[in-house]
Design a protein that fits this description.
The structure is a single chain. The protein is mainly α and about 150 residues long. The protein has a domain of about 90 residues. Helix content is about 65%, strand content about 0%. The chain is built from five helices and no strands. α2 runs antiparallel to α3 and α3 packs across α4.
Length: about 150
């Protein structure tokens, strides 16, 4: 008899299986999992679409800080990169028409692009454009609430 009791003592260590989820809770569980999946996908998509705007803001701060140390060509390239990333465009050039959702009129937009063109293609002379002429316009276009 003591042998049988010794064999049965090991059974107490076995963990019984989990009880299945009641049918009424399985629907709620599926809805919860779907909501979590949708939130994760939205978070990934939002980060992917906002990344260029965040990078444009970082470039803008660096350009504003180091304007006097940079060459005119690199200033012009940086300005065009900031505008392109901030506006979500594939490319910008001198003849790009004004986008509808920016707060500048046609003349200001053309002036901004002409100044960028002048910076990018200047002959190495001193900066023909002052930072105070261009940087506030860029800030107004990309971040109007500032």
């Amino acid at each position: 008899m003591s042998e049988q009791a010794g064999v049965l003592d090991g059974i107490r260590d076995i963990i019984p299986p989990l009880t299945p989820v009641p049918a009424q809770w399985s629907g709620y569980l599926m809805i919860f999992i779907a909501l979590v999946l949708i939130l994760v996908l939205f978070w990934i998509w939002h980060g992917y679409t906002q990344r260029p705007r965040v990078y444009a803001k970082t470039l803008y701060r660096q350009l504003k800080k180091n304007w006097s140390d940079l060459s005119p060509r690199s200033c012009g390239e940086d300005i065009m990169t900031i505008l392109r990333l901030g506006l979500g465009q594939q490319s910008l050039h001198r003849n790009t028409p004004r986008l509808i959702d920016i707060p500048l009129d046609d003349e200001q937009w053309e002036f901004l692009l002409a100044q960028c063109h002048r910076l990018r293609y200047s002959n190495g002379g001193g900066k023909a454009v002052d930072a105070n002429d261009i940087l506030p316009m860029i800030s107004e276009i990309l971040w109007p609430s500032r």
